[in-house]
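User: Can you recover a sequence for this backbone? Please restate the input before giving your answer.

Assistant: Of course. Working from this structure:
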């Protein structure tokens, strides 16, 4: 069984029907935010257990439980076929090549929820998965944006066969994101924390773009880079 920790992430998971059992610090059970969480759990017939703080400290995997831990059913990943079955012409996917920092994946899921991303794709190896730390950073984004776990090469081939435009985001590119069309059925590929996109991945992209930066900075955190690209897509769609 997986778990989610922190008041906002637990609340979001309850709202999406993901929580199967809830632990609450009995000393803070009457605070306004915790009472709202308990109300949602009661409404959803989720069992609530009131425990001492040291029990939560023992159970916590992030050290940032804020007095609540929600237990979820086993982590399940979507398939690319599930995503492609959606009745949309402008599907947007984010593919991540070896992102290992939970804060980055969580941030991307949170931004993805805010910008209408239909799925995030991660490799099975050399990548962080849906851990409690990722869920904590996602602040509920993980309950909105499905995560596909599989071979990026296979997913890219499948998407191109389905007519997607595959766009790499890398500092070595000559084209900036403001000069490229980012709308329609599109998949953005971003590299991990310590490297850009692998040459094999770049070769499979329809285009590769960069985020313009001043000379004072050479690169952006992958979570920030994803946010910049996704909001430029939203701008091009005329939604902001």
């Amino acid at each position: 069984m997986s778990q989610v920790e922190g008041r906002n992430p637990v609340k979001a998971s309850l709202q999406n029907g993901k929580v199967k059992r809830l632990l609450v610090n009995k000393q803070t059970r009457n605070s306004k935010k915790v009472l709202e969480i308990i109300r949602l759990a009661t409404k959803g017939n989720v069992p609530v257990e009131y425990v001492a703080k040291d029990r939560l400290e023992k159970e916590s995997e992030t050290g940032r439980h804020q007095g609540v831990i929600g237990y979820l059913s086993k982590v399940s990943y979507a398939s690319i076929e599930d995503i492609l079955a959606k009745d949309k012409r402008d599907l947007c996917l984010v593919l991540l090549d070896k992102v290992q920092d939970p804060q980055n994946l969580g941030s991307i899921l949170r931004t993805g929820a805010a910008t209408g991303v239909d799925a995030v794709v991660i490799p099975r190896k050399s990548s962080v998965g849906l851990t409690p730390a990722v869920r904590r950073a996602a602040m509920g984004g993980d309950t909105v944006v499905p995560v596909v776990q599989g071979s990026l090469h296979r997913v890219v081939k499948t998407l191109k066969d389905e007519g997607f435009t595959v766009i790499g985001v890398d500092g070595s590119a000559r084209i900036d994101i403001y000069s490229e069309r980012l709308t329609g059925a599109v998949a953005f590929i971003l590299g991990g924390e310590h490297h850009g996109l692998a040459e094999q991945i770049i070769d499979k992209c329809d285009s590769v773009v960069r985020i313009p930066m001043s000379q004072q900075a050479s690169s952006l955190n992958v979570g920030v880079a994803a946010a910049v690209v996704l909001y430029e897509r939203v701008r091009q769609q005329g939604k902001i």
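That completes the design. The chain has two domains: 2-72, 80-236.
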